[in-house]
Design goal:
- The protein is α/β, with parallel strands linked by helices.
- The chain folds into three domains: 195 residues, Aminohydrolase, N-terminal nucleophile (Ntn) domain (Glutamine Phosphoribosylpyrophosphate, subunit 1, domain 1), CATH 3.60.20; 261 residues, 3-Layer(aba) Sandwich (Rossmann fold), CATH 3.40.50; 71 residues, no CATH class.
- It has 24 helices and 15 strands.
- The chain has a six-stranded antiparallel β-sheet. Strands 13-12-11-14-15 form a five-stranded parallel β-sheet, with helices on both faces. The chain has a four-stranded antiparallel β-sheet with strand order 4-5-6-7.
- Helix 7 runs parallel beside helix 9.
- The longest helix has 19 residues.
- The radius of gyration is 23 Å and the shape is globular.
- The chain starts with a strand and ends with a helix.
């Protein structure tokens, strides 16, 4: 796990200058790799690597070389030992790095090598120029667990066609290359405020693109999970329970591979309880688990729930080393600008706040954290999936974002239209599968996984997602609909499994969601915040300012306030150039 950055091409640039560019880029994301930085330049490629040591602590430094092939990557390849054994690489590897087997497989398998990986990654691989001259390529894992961004940069010489491709784990590194001033893309800002995230390959920064999940730069849709989906496979409930146990245990076993301390984030829900159950099974010592609970008297009014009681019940039953973390109003005002700084590619999802707080608490205790992201998308957990299966006369509606953005000039209609365009039509799938696939193309990579990456990497932690293992995902997504949704219950099969293997988890309790009581924390200061937020230039560019002021008035809609507050902080930092502390002073003032 780490941060990577570099430039491809730029032939007119002397190597020393190209290396200096890569050094500036990787320095901008040094928080992703607290164990050290290495920078290297060669004809046509300069790279920087900020390392968070997880596997092969002494020998796993990057970039990696094999013959004339070079690779630099961010993430983990969990099945590296199996690949080394299958392809007779044992004894031929120069390091114990989990990325090196891929580097040695690529000359044999080409881009098909990526389809053999079980892991998360964003990487750059340069084939040996002496063997055909193929250009360097960029690749990202099929779910988009690990980020990768690009930007084009023209040569200073002005030579025709001499353009470098910059790449990095975070957009901020792309601007550090030449000191360019980031510019806002107003359409993407509208998406952020309407949907909580932006869709597709374009980001909120003009000229900065995301590599699509599963993409290899020579084939933009290579290996993406949604592209491999098919209609359900018939299987009985009894058979499915046996197979579920096998695939989940195998995935958790692989996701625990590390030479550093690992544990998990435990909520009161089904997904993290399932991961905890398997970790307890696979470890002889108590597994360390962190849970976040909210300190506020207005939880019920906000629709929030304190999950510490349910989490503690599971922790005691599984003999976990359970640590509780508290989150109150004081934490909220302190953390909000820091979260806005961490999320240079932004999401207004308020779950970023407790995730950041958990990472803050786990730092120094753990280096690797397993989480339950992906469980709802793969096993059919969201209420919107069940609503999509009902006839309209029974309250059914399409499984798509429910936009509430009265402060936008078009109310968010344009953002919703672009979301619909971003979803790949898959008529061969069931309606439930189509809803799941839409989330896996949009919400999962650009909200949930983005949140996990930035909030943990801000503290030098690696987040791992066992549900998003290719084998586990293929099994879960292709289950018959009746094993995912039955009546008012989603995640039917996963609940049945958990009921048997961890009765303390209360597998059939109603899904609550991770609601954070931001409304209760903002309300006492709303009158002061409204004018401050309305004065931010980035807010004025995309919003109806009178509607913004109204949102913070006595009759304003509380659900509008956090997205606007976050966006004002984010714009002040990432477009306005302020520090997190300066943004707190300008937007929030003294608390």
């Amino acid at each position: 796990m780490c941060g990577i950055a570099g430039l491809i091409g730029y032939s007119a640039e002397p190597l020393a200058e190209a290396q200096a560019v890569a050094a500036r880029m990787i320095a901008a994301i040094a928080h992703r790799g607290p164990d050290g930085i290495r920078v290297e330049a060669m004809p046509g490629l300069a790279v920087g690597h900020a390392r968070l040591s997880i596997i092969d602590l002494e020998g796993g430094w990057q970039p990696l070389h094999h013959g004339g092939d070079v690779m630099i990557g961010n993430g983990e390849i969990y099945n590296y030992l199996e690949l080394a054994a299958e392809f007779d690489l044992v004894g031929r590897l120069a390091t114990g790095s989990d990325f090196e087997p891929l580097l040695q497989l690529f000359p044999k398998l080409g881009e098909a090598a990526f389809r053999r990986l079980r892991g998360m990654y964003g990487l750059c691989l340069r084939p040996d120029p002496a063997k055909g001259g193929a250009p360097p390529l960029l690749a990202r894992d099929m779910f988009g667990i690990k980020p990768l961004y690009t930007r084009s940069l023209a040569a200073r010489s002005g030579a025709a066609g001499d353009v470098a491709t910059l790449f990095a784990s975070e957009p901020r590194a792309l601007f550090a290359a030449d000191g360019a001033q980031p510019k806002l893309d107003p359409l993407r800002a509208e998406e952020l405020l309407a949907l909580n995230y932006t869709v597709g390959s374009k980001t909120v920064f003009q000229g900065v693109a995301r590599l699509a999940p599963g993409a290899v730069s020579s084939d933009p849709r290579q290996g993406a999970f949604v592209a491999t989906t098919r209609a359900p496979t018939p299987i009985s409930e009894a058979e499915a329970l046996v197979e579920l146990d096998a695939v989940l245990e195998d995935s958790v076993r692989l996701h625990q591979r590390a030479d550093v301390p690992y544990g998990l984030f435990l909520s009161g829900g089904v997904d993290s309880a399932a991961i905890a159950t398997l970790m307890a099974r696979l470890n002889s010592r108590p597994v360390t688990a962190f849970t976040c609970g909210f300190e506020d008297a207005n939880l019920a009014a906000e629709g929030a729930s304190d999950e510490r009681g349910a989490a503690e019940q599971v922790a005691r039953a599984l003999n976990l080393d359970w640590r509780e973390t508290r989150f109150g109003a004081e934490d909220f005002w302190r953390i909000a600008p820091e979260v806005a700084w961490a999320l240079d590619d932004p999401t207004t999802d308020f779950a970023t706040l407790p995730t950041y707080r958990l990472a803050e608490a786990a730092k120094g205790v753990l280096t690797v954290v397993l989480t339950g992201e992906g469980g709802d998308e793969l096993f059919g957990g969201y209420g919107r999936y069940r609503r999509a299966l009902r006839p309209r006369w029974l309250g059914g509606r399409r499984a798509e974002p429910q936009v509430f953005a009265p402060f936008l000039k078009d109310g968010g209609a344009g953002a919703l239209a672009r979301w619909r365009e971003a979803v790949t039509p898959r008529p061969e799938l069931t309606p439930l599968q189509r809803a799941q696939a839409a989330d896996m193309e949009t919400w999962l990579p650009n909200d949930l996984l983005l949140k996990l990456d930035r909030c943990l990497m801000a503290h030098g932690l690696e987040g791992r997602t066992p549900f998003l293992d290719p084998r586990t995902a293929q099994f879960a997504f292709h289950l018959p609909d009746r094993l995912k949704v039955r009546g008012r219950q989603g995640k039917w099969l996963l609940r049945k499994w958990l009921e048997h293997h961890c009765p303390a988890a209360d597998a059939w309790s109603r899904k609550k969601g991770f609601t954070t009581p931001v409304g209760a924390w903002i309300a006492p200061r709303a009158a002061d915040l409204g004018p401050r937020i309305a004065a931010v230039q980035g807010v004025r560019e995309v919003c109806d300012i009178e509607a913004v002021r109204a949102a913070f008035g006595e009759d304003g809609a509380p659900q509008s306030r956090w997205p606007l507050l976050f966006y004002a902080l984010w714009w002040t930092i990432h477009i306005g150039g302020a520090t997190a502390a300066e943004a707190r002073e300008a937007v929030i003032g003294r608390v």
